[in-house]
Amino acid sequence: MSGWQSATHDEITEEIRQYLARLSGLPEVSDDMPLISGRVLDSLAAVQIVVYVERTFGIEIADEDLELVNFDTVNGLVALVHRNLERV
Predict the structure, then answer these.
(1) How confident is the prediction along the chain (88 residues), in pLDDT tens digits per residue?
(2) Are 79 and 26 in contact (CB under 8 A)?
(3) What torsion, rounded to 10 degrees, do the Cα atoms 62, 74, 71, 58 define?
(4) How many Cα atoms sit within 13 Å of 13 on the Cβ side?
(5) N or C: which end of the chain has fewer CB within 10 A?
(6) Integer distance in angstroms from the first to the last C-alpha of the chain?
């Protein structure tokens, strides 16, 4: 069981926001900023995001969840994490 299951939406959002800011080198990342489709991050970074999400939140990303909409923005990642935490 992940310690994130009892985390608030804001706590999960802030964790993801901070990680993506570090990964992108930007001072901050807005929740709806297109990171991959906007070419802020590349395909290697997309793989790093998958690993980060799985390790940080203790979830496993299913193949059917490997879609751009789930990884392109903070909002997409937060929704993905919430869906997966509900399954744990």
Answers:
(1) 468 989 999 999 999 999 999 999 999 999 999 999 999 999 999 999 999 999 999 999 999 999 999 999 999 999 999 999 998 7
(2) no
(3) -30
(4) 10
(5) N
(6) 7
φ, ψ at 58 (rounded to 5°) = 65, 40
Give 3-state DSSP helix, strand, coil % of the chain, rounded to 5: 65, 0, 35
Predicted TM-score (pTM) above 0.90:
yes
Q: How far is residue 77's CA from residue 12's CA, in Å, rounded to a whole number? A: 9
Amino acid at 61: I
